[in-house]
Amino acid sequence: MARKDKGPAPPDWDKRYRAGFYDGPGAPHDLLVSFAGLLAGRRVLDIAMGRGTDAAYLASRGCRMTGLELSSEAIKLAREAAGLPAYPVDIVRGDASGLPFKKGSFGGVVVFFFLLREIARDIAEILEPGGILIYETFLKRQNEADRRRNPAFLLDDGELLSLFPGFETIHYEEGAHDRPGKVRITAQLVARKA
Ligand SMILES: C[S@@+](CC[C@H](N)C(=O)[O-])C[C@H]1O[C@@H](n2cnc3c(N)ncnc32)[C@H](O)[C@@H]1O
Predict the structure, then answer these.
(1) How far is the C-alpha of 47 from the C-alpha of 89, rounded, in Å?
(2) Are β-strands 106-112 and 168-176 bridged in parallel, bridged antiparallel, or unpaired?
(3) Is the CATH code 3.40.50.150 the one for domain 25-192?
(4) Is the CB of residue 24 below 6 angstroms from any atom belonging to ligand 1?
């Protein structure tokens, strides 16, 4: 699949999944569970859905789900984990650097632990007016607390909020959002497109 020239090249995620380097969250992210009610009944896109834990959770809550994911290994794992012939998520294998969706296609977009800051405007455009964005990913400060990650894929303090100007902020929080056994210094944003 052709890659649009947006942002740094991602690591080899197929290799990572095959090696068991990234086993996914196991349960939907706490931020998503807290704000899932805002997405009820909406058509929702999970960008970089990984093994699809969040997407399957939202489908179980009545959202019409699309999951975008680059790694065919992750997609395979998502289908295996669901254990269903008809997985209740419309999976699109694709590169988020060229979002293959029309403007205003979704009533909600969720993004967890994925950053391509160059597509923030594209994310805003595929949301319909009044659409809900739920986004959480690592701050650069994570590198002081954990293994070193490529800073190109980490946020500066205050950056996530600034990537979506004109949105109404419902929740914004930066700092430690740890899970048992996992240190996480993240920014969390829940916002509504005007
Ligand atoms: C850290 S994982 C997060 C997965 C999931 N959102 C979660 O929170 O568990 C990052 C995911 O982004 C996917 N990814 C990386 N670059 C991508 C791209 N350009 N387009 C779509 N997915 C991508 C990887 O395959 C991987 O599944």
Answers:
(1) 12
(2) unpaired
(3) yes
(4) yes
Residue closest by Cα to atom 3 of ligand 1: 113
Domain ranges within the chain, ordered by starting residue: 25-192
Distance CA 144, CA 29 (A): 23
Which pairing describes strands 168-176 and 127-138: parallel, antiparallel, or unpaired?
Answer: unpaired
Ligand 1 atom, smallest distance to 96 CA: 20
Evaluate whether 70 touches 100 at the Cβ level (below 8 Å). Answer: no
Cα end-to-end span (Å), the chain: 33
164: helix, strand or coil: coil
Rounded to the nearest whole angstrom, what is the distance from the C-alpha of residue 72 to the centroid of ligand 1?
A: 11
| CA nearest ligand 1 atom 16, residue | 10
Task: List pLDDT tens digits, range 125-166.
Answer: 999 999 999 999 999 999 999 888 999 999 999 999 999 999
